[in-house]
């Protein structure tokens, strides 16, 4: 039986590959060039995450080796409706969809962290949740810059 750390790595890689495929397929579901470009960028980011996880599997990773910068949560996606599907979505709904997807991933890793016993697996969960929050912040900042109207 695999240890918790290895199982978590395998699960995380599966989630990243699935997200990459989802964003690649989503590019064909819209005519909006901005939405297509965003999905292409998101697919490439998921590929980079998969590669990073594969590298972690190949070497001896210690959780105390990564920086733990404080990442703010703008909580934009938690307060907006829409972005439930990519088919026919424009840039705004595509951004909202991606923000909500990052929020779901963040919540997944946060729940996993409390369920695991292995210290290194917990630290990896914390890192993965941190990374998802970082991605969400990037998307929410872009959303705020593009669509928030000040009077």
Describe what you observe in this structure.
This protein has 151 residues and is mostly helical. It has a single domain, classed as Ferritin. Helices cover 71% and strands 0% of the residues. It contains 5 helices and no strands. The protein has helices at residues 4-26, 33-58, 76-79, 91-115, 119-147. Helix 1 packs antiparallel against helix 2 and helix 1 (4-26) packs parallel to helix 5. It is globular, with a radius of gyration of 16 Å. The relative contact order is 0.16. The model has no long low-confidence stretch (mean pLDDT 88).
Question: TL;DR of this structure?
Answer:
With 151 residues, the chain is mainly α.
Q: Which class best fits the helix and strand makeup?
A: mainly alpha
**Can you write the helix and strand succession as a string?**
HHHHH
Query: How far apart lie the N and C ends?
Result: 59 Å
CATH topology: Ferritin
- Helical fraction equals over 70%
Give the domain tally. 1
Apparent shape:
globular
CATH architecture: Up-down Bundle
